[in-house]
Amino acid sequence: PGTDMILLEVNNRIIEETLTLKFEGAAAGNKPEAVEVTFADFDGVLYHISNPNGDKTKVMVSISLKFYKELQEHGADEVLKKVYGSYLINPESGYNVSLLYDLENLPADKDAIVHQAGMLKRNCFASVFEKYFKFQEEGKEGEKRAVIHYRDDETMYVEAKKDRVTVVFSTVFKDDDDVVIGKVFMQEFKEGRRASHTAPQVLFSHREPPLELKDTDAAVGDNIGYITF
């Protein structure tokens, strides 16, 4: 019997659909229409798609992450420059990163550019993982762990070990139902791992932080869970 899996998309569908619509319209020679969309994802990350200075031939995509400063400490700006090149502009006020697309000068590889824009949040995070995978490859074991406060009361820790990179997410359960859902979700992860020989080991600890965090101020409590990869 097949099992239902929870699917979490890495790419942002609203960005991709909006840009695809704009690029296709421009390619067909249609007169560009105004766009003004502000939305948030489940991590509280804010996005804004707009026409800068009301210029309908330009589309700007911006992202605001409360913890962007922490990502910058691990080289986020450099990674984004590498990925987005000339599409990267000075961020609009109130946002951390902005990309600008010119509908009168469409890229040849439209689909790839659209997908890249949809991966903006993922690419903001990429520097942390790239840095620690490099530490692991180079055998730099004792490097200070990265601590990213990706939600108000939830934290991600990344650490390089000799034979692996360990990632720990803390998560807060708001009530008893949340605890049950969290445990079901973690069971899904474990089942998924059994089906794939290449997937990393997944550990879930309820109430107490895992050993990796024993010397930190990691929270303890009935409503706290830790997921370790």
From TrEMBL:
Cytoplasm in keyword set: yes
Biological process, per Gene Ontology: actin filament polymerization; Arp2/3 complex-mediated actin nucleation
InterPro entries assigned to the protein according to its UniProt record, in alphabetical order: ARPC2, ARPC2/4
Alphabetic keyword roster: Actin-binding, Cytoplasm, Cytoskeleton
UniProt keyword Transit peptide present: no
UniProt xrefs under Gene3D superfamilies: 3.30.1460.20
Subcellular location: Cytoplasm, Cytoskeleton
GO cellular component terms attached to this protein's record: Arp2/3 protein complex
Pfam families, per database record: P34-Arc
Chain ranges passing through the membrane: none
Domain of life: Eukaryota
GO molecular function, one term: actin filament binding
Similarity remark: Belongs to the ARPC2 family.
PANTHER family the record matches: ACTIN-RELATED PROTEIN 2_3 COMPLEX SUBUNIT 2, ARP2/3 COMPLEX 34 KDA SUBUNIT
Protein role: Functions as actin-binding component of the Arp2/3 complex which is involved in regulation of actin polymerization and together with an activating nucleation-promoting factor (NPF) mediates the formation of branched actin networks.
Subunit details: Component of the Arp2/3 complex.
Protein name as catalogued: Arp2/3 complex 34 kDa subunit
